[in-house]
Write a sequence for this structure.
């Protein structure tokens, strides 16, 4: 029986694997050293090398085959679209319970004369020389201990998912006495306190506490415009999105406002949004920060101002008491994110005394828990040397708009997370993981996030990412009784 091949879970109905293909395996390379006067040599190292091979393929091109008789142009165009990927692909042979992470390259040739069966080859390089099981495995901690049974023929990385049941100043997962990964500080002599309490947090699944603003102009040259329109909940009921932009010219949209639970001086405010980049159009999406006299103090947001291009950028601005605006951050999207259908954007503005810090990061929108690797991270600071932007904060608003001359790029406001930053005495430690927080550790990509925020800066010196060996590994979670933990892994084979 002829077997098809899949690339990223897609196949062509008329493309099959050649009959004489041999599966490559066990591609170890060694390095040796010759010693004079000694027979043979000394083994210096042994390691898995990259694997290169030709993949033989058959194209069925008869009246009875899928799609009937196809022209050479049809075949070539379909093959190019099938094989041409910017990154490594998931290459699977029908009937096998594993796949490769493969790079397909070099050219292929199609005979000019149309034939019922066409043979060709494509070149494949496995920079990652392992075969991966199609289905992953998982286990949940019992009494802070997790057994990992790796049935593959090689060690494998793990993904750790932990939900905090209590506040904690650290998280650690350990394998044996030497291998461990940790974030935070477990020094019991340091005073532990929450120096960044939440004053308002919402995943925006209802409009309780939010006040729709009437027709007015938000005097922000980069993120503002006319308000008066309305929001609605998205189809998933998990975000705000623009329902009616209202009427007018220029940027038109909706603003919803609310007060915070208290007046704050030092703060950390984060806006989370999603953009559907498959639908061309314009968007401005922002969180506005108001002082105790209801004057604009700051704005953080995302804008795509080109109606027919995907060229978004993140902008942060400040306003003095007279309403004069200064742009302190303007960061265009990395071109590699232009091709993503959906983009998750995080924007954080922190003020500690006269220092403003902007931190931004993004995710390609894929299903949790695969969404573990932040992209396009950036961080910058701005010093308020003239003390022009030191007013206390009492209110925030959310705004989304489109330009009146263009269509709307669908934008979804997913959350707003607002903390007060208290003064930390010398020698104290903050509770970096709060009750309900989600910790995600990806040892394959050397990555750790808390509530999807990059947290590698909290990695404890001396700890490191580790793999689990083939066979059974016993992992321990610390501190005990604090986290509900699950470990996922994918067997891999040499």
């Amino acid at each position: 029986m002829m077997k098809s091949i899949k690339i990223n879970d897609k196949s062509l109905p008329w493309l099959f694997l050649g009959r004489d293909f041999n599966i490559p395996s066990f591609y170890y390379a060694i390095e040796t050293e010759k010693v004079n006067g000694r027979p043979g040599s000394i083994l210096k190292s042994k390691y898995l090398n990259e694997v290169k091979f030709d993949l033989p393929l058959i194209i069925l091109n008869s009246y009875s085959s899928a799609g009937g008789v196809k022209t050479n142009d049809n075949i070539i165009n379909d093959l190019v679209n099938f094989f041409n990927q910017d990154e490594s692909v998931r290459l699977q042979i029908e009937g096998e319970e594993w796949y490769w992470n493969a790079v397909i390259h070099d050219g292929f040739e199609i005979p000019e004369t149309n034939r019922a069966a066409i043979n060709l080859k494509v070149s494949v390089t496995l920079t990652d020389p392992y075969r991966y099981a199609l289905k992953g495995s998982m286990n949940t901690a019992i009494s802070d201990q997790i057994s990992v049974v790796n049935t593959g023929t090689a060690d494998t990385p793990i993904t750790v998912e932990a939900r905090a049941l209590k506040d904690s100043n650290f998280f650690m997962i350990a394998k044996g006495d030497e291998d461990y990964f940790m974030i935070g500080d477990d020094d019991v002599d340091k005073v532990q306190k929450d120096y960044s309490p939440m004053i308002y947090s919402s995943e925006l699944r209802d409009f309780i506490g939010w006040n729709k603003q009437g027709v007015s102009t938000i005097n922000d040259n980069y993120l503002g415009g006319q308000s008066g329109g309305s929001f609605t909940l998205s189809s998933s009921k998990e975000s705000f999105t623009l329902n009616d932009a209202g009427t007018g010219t220029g940027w038109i949209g909706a603003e919803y406002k609310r007060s915070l639970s208290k007046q704050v001086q030092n703060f950390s405010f984060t806006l989370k949004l999603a953009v559907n980049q498959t639908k061309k159009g314009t968007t401005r999406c922002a969180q506005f920060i108001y002082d105790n006299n209801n004057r604009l103090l700051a704005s953080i947001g995302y804008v795509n101002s080109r109606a027919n291009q995907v060229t978004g950028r993140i902008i942060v601005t400040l306003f003095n008491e007279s309403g004069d605006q200064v742009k302190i951050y303007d960061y265009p999207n990395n071109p590699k994110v232009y091709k993503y259908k959906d983009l998750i954007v995080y924007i954080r503005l922190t003020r500690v005394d006269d220092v403003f810090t902007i931190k931004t990061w993004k995710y390609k929108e894929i299903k949790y828990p695969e969404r573990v690797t932040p992209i396009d991270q950036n961080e910058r600071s701005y010093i308020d040397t003239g003390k022009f932007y030191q007013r206390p904060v009492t209110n925030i608003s959310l705004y989304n708009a489109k330009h009146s001359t263009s269509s709307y790029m669908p934008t979804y406001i997913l959350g707003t997370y607002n903390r007060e930053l208290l003064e930390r005495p010398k020698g104290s430690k903050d509770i970096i993981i709060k009750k309900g927080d989600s910790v995600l550790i990806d040892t394959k990509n050397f990555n750790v996030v808390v509530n999807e925020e990059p947290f590698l800066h909290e990695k404890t010196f001396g700890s490191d990412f580790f793999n689990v060996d083939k066979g059974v590994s016993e992992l321990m979670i610390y501190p005990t009784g604090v986290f509900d933990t699950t470990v996922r892994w994918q067997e891999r084979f040499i």
Residues 104 and 402 are 41 Å apart (CA to CA). The helical segments are 72-83. Residues 72-83 form the longest helix (12 residues). The mean pLDDT is 93.
